[in-house]
Amino acid sequence: MKKIGLIGGMGPVSTIDYYQQLVTKFQQVHPNICPPIVIDSLDVFELLTLEETGNKQALLRVLLTSLNNLKNAGASLAALTANTPHMVFDELVSVSPLPLISIVDSTLAAIKKNKQTKIGLLGTKMTMELGFYQKRLQSADINLVTPSAEQIDTIHQIISKELEVGIVTTQSKQKLLEIIKKMSSKNNLDGIILGCTELPLILSQKDIAITVYDTVSIHVDDILNVALQE
Known about the structure:
Blueprint: E1 4-8, H1 12-29, E2 37-41, H2 44-52, H3 56-72, E3 77-80, H4 89-95, H5 103-114, E4 118-122, H6 125-129, H7 132-138, E5 143-145, H8 149-161, H9 170-187, E6 191-194, E7 211-214, H10 215-227
Parallel strand pairs: 1-2, 1-3, 4-5, 4-6, 6-7
Helix pairs in contact: 1-10, 5-10, 8-9
């Protein structure tokens, strides 16, 4: 099996979720064995500042340094444990010392498998507004719907001020569910992407009537599939 490299810390809570899911899902097939994983943990608040200010070159430098750390630690492939840094994924792939597994491409494959064509997106302000999800999904004739400007601000605040530091409240959960309900009703959505790796901390399929695309779980499945290939 190939050693898995994770750029973590984006944020710490979701990095733990990645690690736990990778180990648990691997052991469902290979009991009593742990998969080889190396994590380079970054500062989520530094990255958020770079993302929010649109400093793509500095963001690329930080991520590339992390990938080199993972390669030096013996990783054979790598993944970013967050959606928002995928704003520079195409540029990162061209300079990466390791093969990268895209959370956006993994999510697109899951939507195509379900043959759904009208999907909502929740995430950070940058993920919802910068268009990297829209570009990939539109290439597959999937219509991606984002919340209103006011709703985007509400979601971003919940993610950046609460979920990134492990705070989960019933009040914020109800706000998110109300936004999804309004989006679904207005746009007749088939599904909703939890396009931030902290959102599964507060939302799951049991809370929502339409299909939920948990990007952490989907990404983990693809990472393991690639790692287990000979």
